Amino acid sequence: MVQYTRTRFDASFAALSDATRRGVLEQLGRADASITDLAEKYHMTLTGMKKHVGVLEQAGLVTTEKVGRVRTCKLGLRRLEEEAAWIERYRQLWDVRFDELDKVVEVLKRKEKVDGRKK
Amino acid sequence: MDARSESEPTSMKNRTTVERKSERELVVTRTFNGPARIVFEAWTKPELFSRWWALKSSGVSLLSCEMDVRVGGGYRLEFGHEASKPMAFFGRYVEVTPHSRLVWTNDESDDGAVTTVTFEEKKAGKTLLVLHELYPSKEALDGAIAVMEGGMPEQFEQLDELLFTLGASVGRS
User: Fold this and answer.
1) Which of A88, A93, A102 lies at the smallest CB-CB distance from B55?
2) How large is the ipTM?
3) Domain spans of chain B?
4) Nearest CA in chain B to A83
5) Do A94 and B16 touch (CB under 8 A)?
């Protein structure tokens, strides 16, 4: 998780280091847009905008979906802190369960000892 | 930021860790103070398994637990507040290697993971348990995580139930 999170963080910071990409995020915060819309808005070639969107997508900040010939961009569903929070809740679930398993293991160990003595 | 999740470093308790290894994988690890054959037994005998699997604090109890632990054998767990409307989790054992490895499918949904549990005996009679979940796609695991999206305080109770359901299905049900 550490490794994974750090990679995601690096990708996020790299993605946010560019003014155009920050603008794109702001724009998508208002409404979804196609790559063509975004390219026009920022006076850019389609290829140039595709690259920017690709970087944002890699960082998990934006998701895209192609319908017909149009690729629509929207803000990424996933946020680092949400994923981290989920992982923590999931960990707690297993932790509680494994505490109970500890008890079962203890009982079985004691039983083995007693049985061993009987032999 | 260190987003790895671990237990509080209390003296006696072993730490549980959860890590998202890749887009499709989650890994849970924990050490137990007992030999592998005992920990394995607790995962493969229904009467033992049902003593620890259900989360008492969730208020949802295990209504039934059937496990045919052999390659190709099935399992079925039913949970619920009431017997009339149980939530069922089921699948098949794909690999069964006594005291060291268990693999099963989670067939209650198309997005269910394949769960692999390994039991590795360490020094002083301790066992390292690694539970590995491989989801069919990035979307399936993201979907599980997305349960958390937009969680408002008043929704936490529902989320808990969903997470419980997920945990039950994912871990093995």
Assistant:
1) A93
2) 0.76
3) 17-171
4) B145
5) yes
A-to-B residue pairs, Cβ atoms closer than 8 angstroms: 122
Q: What is the CATH number of domain A2-75?
A: 1.10.10.10
| Whole-prediction pTM | 0.63
Judged by a CB distance cut-off of 8 A, whether residue B3 touches chain A is yes
**A63: Cα separation from own chain's centroid:** 11
Residue where the block lists tokens 């923590």 = A88
What CATH code would you report for B17-171? 3.30.530.20
**Average pLDDT of every residue of chain A:** 83
State the pLDDT at residue A80: 61
Nearest to A94 among B28, B57, B142 (CB): B28
B96 touches chain A (CB under 8 A): no
Distance CA B143, CA B138 (A): 8
Give the per-residue pLDDT at A7: 58
Residue environment code for A79-105, b if the CB has 16+ CB neighbours within 10 A, otherwise e: ebebbbbbbbbbbbbbbbbbebbbebb
Q: Please state which of the ranges A23-32, A100-109, B43-52, B105-114 shows the lowest mean pLDDT.
A: A23-32
